[in-house]
Specification:
This protein is an alpha/beta fold and 781 residues long. The chain has 24 helices and 28 strands. The protein folds into three domains: 246 residues, Rossmann fold, CATH 3.40.50; 195 residues, 2-Layer Sandwich (Beta-Lactamase), CATH 3.30.450; 281 residues, Alpha-Beta Barrel (TIM Barrel). It starts with a strand and ends with a helix.
């Protein structure tokens, strides 16, 4: 039976120059009560580890998690000091943590994040949660790390599939505890989330990791707007891990529109905000820690759109002006005084400003611009070393400058650019944003990520603001996982607009026995480049189910519609029902596994495979394809769905197979596995599903002798389905392939497609006599 187990570690007592943290010991005691409460966490086992030394902490972590089973839910909580060494690696301080005489951290006295990652990666449990209530700067009174303005690299050092990491801060700037609180800031509000009647955002009676973290984040930022708790998942399913039961609202107050009352749980005050009005169809969206960036991104895109879409302006814009414009857009949107693209030269010239914005009115009123460049900006640049700016895992450093006369403080951001940027050759380049308001709320690692994304995308797509915005949103989604609802909706709108422009091409599939075209594969193509719209596929895989389903439905509709009308146009002179039905050859369409288990996709397939009566045939503008002529190729790019309605499936492969059987049984649709041996198209998927068709990409034949691979595949499909083994289709065949048509025929390969047969195009056709003779000669050798 699956177990819920937790290891809670709190380190409050330290030696040497580390400040004590009394709240850490309290954190784990209070959290233990919540997790063990049968009306809340309902954990089966909660173990406390209070004030361990480094060896005790390592031993405790390793032994605890090695005993877990595959279906268990494991939770690791740490409250204490976090440290970073000179290589930007994360460590957790223990009671014996110390430095050597040179001021370097003694690694044997800490527990590294890499050790925790290694232990939890070896753990069999599929559902893993890490909660860190600690900061990674200012721990030593004589600071171990002065770079307190960068991201932590938690994704790289602790991220893994099936694991979700909650961190009390997204950067190293974080006050660990408050003098008036007995608990650490983040832990206090996390406990509130367990006990609150309002943290169950979707009102399903359970609290997911997503709901707990977002509730705590909102409460933390109400007190400290410069703190940004972070959630990290590598798969969207991590958000759905259920950690606790939700608290139920008393029926006498549940329908109230506004509740001013608050109640007390121990020494933690929990306020109840507005509830949903029963006449409303939606709950208020859970806030995201990135919402503050929305106006900034909107300003960037608006400036780009206004500048380059003004009448005839873009046609006369020089390269220098384009770069200067990018700097100007960043300055205006950031409310900064000046922005420059700076290059560090290895020769004696040092820092060199390559491109720059104009100066703000504030500069003109306070400085002479030339003096500002020579004094203030130069001073800021020389205060930061190259190694500091370009340290691995950092997205920029910040400096504060005080004007001697006005005594106003301003912030300067130095944001590194990719080292492979061709603009700088072998030199280092970065963007310096000067004169940000002292209390600017946009200063964060996410802000610098937006800046670099905007810079890179604006260079590549200067006349496509929507694509630039999509690049920014994609990078934020990739780095932070959870983004504001408005970002999600905006990205979906851009995605749909781009998807509407895609055209369908058809690539012929050759039957090696009859040397005729036996079917077609529908391929999506960008109308401008005539290449595959890789950006759409990447976006769908990044943003999740809604995007993949939309992609698959639109492409399926487009494929069937275009294919049908190609047949009708080609054979319009003999457009009888029976004649056209005979001319429809099998059509292969790619689809993500996630879409196949959705009712909306099934209904789409059902509608498209419904054959109209002969009396209405071709008269109402509809289109269709007989179910027995439709082959859905299961994409290798993603794994099979492992959740259904928020519950982890015991056997995803068997569940998926049952879903497919409904298509085959009721709609007569066939299935194939695309790109066998690549990505998730594994032997277990082939053996478990036993589809009628298996596609092998030519690239697989380069790794070992082609004959061995194909013979092995024949044996595998025969073993999977002895009475009806799958037919093998080799795709991507051309003159450079490591095997030819004659060899494939001798190896009993059924079908072939690739440039040697015919390139993908907008029309369907029969083989010409010349092409058929050419292929006959190739097959006969």
């Amino acid at each position: 039976m699956p177990q819920k187990v937790a290891l809670l570690i709190g380190v409050s007592d330290y030696k040497e120059n580390l400040d004590s943290l009394p709240a850490a010991a309290q954190d784990i005691e209070v959290l233990k009560e919540v997790l063990e409460n049968p009306k809340m966490g309902e954990f089966d086992q909660v173990k406390l580890l209070c004030n361990p030394d480094s060896l005790e902490m390592q031993y405790g972590i390793e032994t605890f998690f090695m005993e877990c089973e595959k279906e268990d839910l494991i939770l690791l909580f740490f409250s204490g000091h976090g440290l970073k060494d000179d290589r930007n690696n994360l460590h957790f301080a223990t009671t014996n943590t110390k430095k050597n005489s040179r001021g370097d951290l003694i690694l044997s006295t800490v527990v590294s994040a890499s050790f925790v990652n290694q232990v939890m990666s070896r753990c069999r449990a599929r559902r893993q949660v890490i909660i860190l209530d600690c900061c990674f700067s200012g721990a030593f009174r004589t600071s171990l790390q002065s770079k307190d303005d960068s991201s932590l690299g938690l994704r790289e050092q602790l991220g893994a599939e099936g694991r979700v990491v909650l961190a009390s801060s997204s950067s190293t700037q974080y006050s660990f505890e408050h003098k008036e609180s007995e608990l650490s800031i983040y832990t206090k509000h996390l406990i509130e989330a367990f006990e609150s009647v309002t943290s169950d955002a979707n009102q399903d009676g359970y609290l997911s990791i997503y709901e707990l973290h977002e509730y705590a984040t909102q409460r933390v930022q109400e007190e400290y707007d410069d703190i940004t708790p972070k959630i990290i998942v590598l798969k969207d399913e991590g958000y759905n891990i259920i950690l606790s039961k939700a608290q139920v609202i008393d029926s006498s107050i549940k329908n109230a529109k506004t509740i001013e009352e608050s109640f007390s749980t121990g020494k933690i005050r929990v306020k109840i905000p507005q509830f949903k009005d029963e006449t409303s169809n939606r709950y208020k969206a859970i806030p995201s820690s990135l919402e503050y960036l929305e106006p900034f991104i909107e300003k960037l895109i608006e400036n780009l759109r206004n500048r380059y879409f003004s009448t005839n302006h873009f046609e006369n814009t020089s390269e220098n002006e384009k770069f200067n414009n990018i700097m100007e857009f960043i300055r205006i949107s950031s409310d900064a005084d000046f922005v420059a693209l700076v290059q560090f030269c290895d020769d004696q010239s040092g820092w060199l400003s390559r491109f720059q914005s104009s100066f703000s009115d504030k500069i003109h009123g306070t400085y002479d611009p030339s003096i500002y460049l020579e004094s203030v900006v130069k001073e800021i640049l020389t205060s930061a070393s190259l190694d500091e700016i370009f340290t691995t895992g950092y997205r920029g450093v910040y400096r504060s400058y005080r004007h001697e006369e006005t005594e106003n403080h301003q912030l300067f951001a130095l944001i590194p650019l990719a080292p492979c940027d061709e603009l700088f050759g072998n030199d280092a380049g970065f963007i310096v944003v000067c004169g940000l308001p002292e209390k600017s709320k946009i200063i964060s690692d996410a802000y610098t990520r937006v800046i670099t994304s905007f810079y890179q995308a604006s260079r590549r797509f200067p006349f496509s603001p929507s694509i630039v915005e999509a690049e920014i949103l994609d990078n934020l989604k990739q780095d932070y996982g959870f983004v504001p609802l408005n970002f999600y909706e905006k990205r979906f709108d851009i995605f749909c607009e781009r998807l509407s422009q895609i055209e369908m091409y058809f690539e012929p599939i050759l039957d090696l026995d009859t040397i005729t075209i036996s079917g077609w594969e529908a391929l999506a193509r960008d109308p401008n480049t005539l290449s595959a719209p890789v950006d759409l596929f990447k976006a769908a895989e990044l943003w999740g189910k809604r995007f993949t389903i939309e992609l698959d439905i639109v492409l399926l509709e487009s494929a069937v519609r275009t294919y049908y009308y190609e047949i009708v146009n080609d054979y319009h002179d003999n457009g009888s029902h029976n004649f056209l039905m005979k001319k429809i050859l099998p059509l292969s369409v790619n689809v993500y596994p996630q879409s196949l288990v959705q009712d909306v996709y099934y209904k789409t397939v059902k509608r498209l495979t419904s054959i109209p009566e002969e009396s209405t045939f071709m008269s109402d503008g509809s289109y269709f394809i007989p179910g027995r002529k439709l082959i859905l190729e299961i994409s290798e790019k993603t794994e099979l769905p492992s959740f259904e309605k928020g519950i982890r499936l015991q056997n995803p492969l068997e569940s998926f197979k049952n879903k497919l059987s409904k298509y085959s049984r009721d709609l007569k649709v066939k299935f194939g596995i695309d790109d066998f041996g690549v990505g998730h198209a594994s032997m277990s998927r082939l053996a478990g599903l036993s589809p009628p068709y298996v596609k092998v990409d030519r690239e697989m034949l380069h790794h070992r002798p082609a004959e061995i691979i194909i013979k092995f595949l024949h044996d595998l499909v025969a073993f999977a389905s002895p009475l009806n083994p799958a037919l093998i289709i080799l795709e991507g065949l051309d003159e450079k392939s490591p095997i030819n048509l004659r060899q494939l025929r001798e190896l009993e390969v059924s079908y072939v497609q690739g440039h040697i047969i015919g390139k993908a195009g907008p029309q369907i056709y029969d083989l010409s006599p010349e092409k058929r003779k050419f292929l006959e000669d190739k097959i006969q050798g």
